Known about the structure:
This protein is of the alpha+beta class and 255 residues long. It has helices at residues 7-30, 37-50, 124-141, 150-163, and strands at residues 54-55, 74-78, 81-83, 97-106, 109-118, 167-168, 174-176, 183-187, 204-207, 210-212, 218-220, 227-229, 235-237, 240-245, 248-251. The protein has a single domain (7-251), classed as Creatine Amidinohydrolase, CATH 3.90.230.10. The strands form 4 sheets. Strands 8-7-9-14-15 form a 5-stranded antiparallel β-sheet. Strands 1, 2, 4 and 5 form a 4-stranded antiparallel β-sheet that branches. The protein has a 3-stranded antiparallel β-sheet with strand order 3-12-11, with no helix packed on it. Strand 11 and strand 12 form a beta hairpin. Helix 1 (7-30) packs antiparallel against helix 2 and helix 3 (124-141) packs antiparallel against helix 4.
Amino acid sequence: MFTIKSQAEIDKMKKSGEILYETLQLIKKNTVPGVTTKELDRIAEEYIVKKNAIPSFKGYDTGIPGVGPFPASICASTNEQVVHGIPSLNRLKDGDIISIDVGVYLNGYHADAARTFAVGKISNDAQLLIDVTRQSFFEGLNQMVIGNHIRDIASAIQNYAESRGFSVVRDFVGHGIGTDIHEPPEIPNYVTKRRGVRLENGMTIAVEPMINAGAYSVKVLENNWTVVTSDGSLSAHYENTIAITENGPLLLTKF
């Protein structure tokens, strides 16, 4: 069952979100041809720690047998990689796109957000994918109001993305968030048979469309973490942490 946060708890999550937003802006500035994703990970971790916070993802353990703890502070997923890319010494190239997912833990509360960035000059098709993925989140945001259900968010995201010719990943979804990085409820970006829980004042959720240029099917690489599109098509990711309030949705990771 999901938890309801007090205003004081939401304020703590907003502070985590501010650090996360600043981290993403720093990564964006350094996302240039020739940089390694390992270097981006170092930049992110140093900044988060400097702010007296903790990277939520480093050492994260799913508890699944055979899947070790996540070894980095950011997920860095390039081109056909959808999510959970492990930073490496591979250098980014002009024309790549990269999805950066970051979590920040401060004063007992997490924030979680992701962006897809262009590396140098990218194709028009790649830019359209990034733009549609971002806008699909904001279509969903319009439905994040008290009294609506999870399916209202999912429907808005799916309808927008598919109307533009893209597909919505089914295997990974958004989630509740707070004292744990992943809390109930699950928040699909596509319509399921269930309406899902009704949104209530004080809920905090992480909504994260993962949109593919080709088919929605994905597979996991041998490292047991990195998810790629099954057909090798590009994928983009956009995520924010949101508080449901009486005055509408409050973005905790975008300023």
